[in-house]
Design goal:
PhoU-like_sf; elongated; Methane Monooxygenase Hydroxylase, Chain G, domain 1; Phosphate-specific transport system accessory protein PhoU; PhoU; mainly alpha; about 220 residues; PhoU_dom; phosphate transport
Length: about 220
């Protein structure tokens, strides 16, 4: 019975890794479309998000079956609970990457001229990749570094807002476009928050402690 359970846990781990890879692909496509204005990449990001939604439902079903059909010990229970939480954050990252891609499809031109939004985009990709790598490698130090790095993204968001306020002051006729870019920056900031959540659940799955419980 335990051997079968261990096999199912390995399958669950592999499915989460696959979902994480889809998440990395969709955010990479969305960000590249943002920086280049490539509508095909934007459409690709939206398609991948639909795959992420399917994967979330499959993994959720696997977790519930493991909880109902098996009798997990405390460490297994922590892992399954953490996975259930993480897939929600991964799915939301996919949604926000898709939202960015949708804005890009009607935004005229790329956003590469905005230094801080480009830095922010690269910083959020790093956070997502590192949070998922922390889970794969069971790396507590890497998970903590993701949690700390969220401050970098928050600072870049504040700088990006100042850039955009200055843009509107100089070119009031560009107001609608600037608001679209501000919305993109907000989505990037939220992606950073979700990556932080994933890292916190990685910490919980390893230690049994969740950061929010001792903030």
């Amino acid at each position: 019975m335990r051997n079968r359970f261990d096999t199912q846990l390995v399958e669950l781990n592999n499915e989460l890794i696959a979902m994480g890879a889809l998440c990395e692909n969709t955010i990479a496509s969305a960000v590249k479309s943002l920086l280049t204005g490539d509508a095909k990449l934007a459409a690709s990001a939206i398609r991948i998000d639909q795959e992420i939604d399917r994967k979330e439902r499959e993994i959720e079903s696997m977790c519930l079956k493991l909880l109902l059909q098996q009798q997990p010990v405390a460490s297994d229970l922590r892992l399954i609970s953490a996975v259930l939480k993480m897939i929600t954050d991964i799915e939301r990252i996919g949604d926000q990457a898709s939202d960015i891609a949708e804005i890009v499809t009607y935004l005229s031109g790329a956003c590469s001229h905005n230094e801080h939004i480009e830095q922010m985009a690269q910083a959020t990709i790093k956070m997502v990749t590192d949070s998922l790598d922390a889970f794969v490698r069971r790396d507590l130090t890497l998970a903590w570094s993701v949690i700390e790095y969220d401050d970098v993204v928050d600072d870049l968001f504040a700088q990006c807002k100042q850039d955009l306020i200055a843009d509107i002051a100089k070119n009031p006729e560009e107001g609608e476009r600037v608001l679209d870019i501000l919305m993109i920056a907000k989505y990037l900031e939220r992606i950073g928050d979700h990556a932080t959540n994933i890292a916190e659940w990685v910490e919980f799955s390893i230690t049994g402690a969740h950061k929010s419980a001792h903030d």
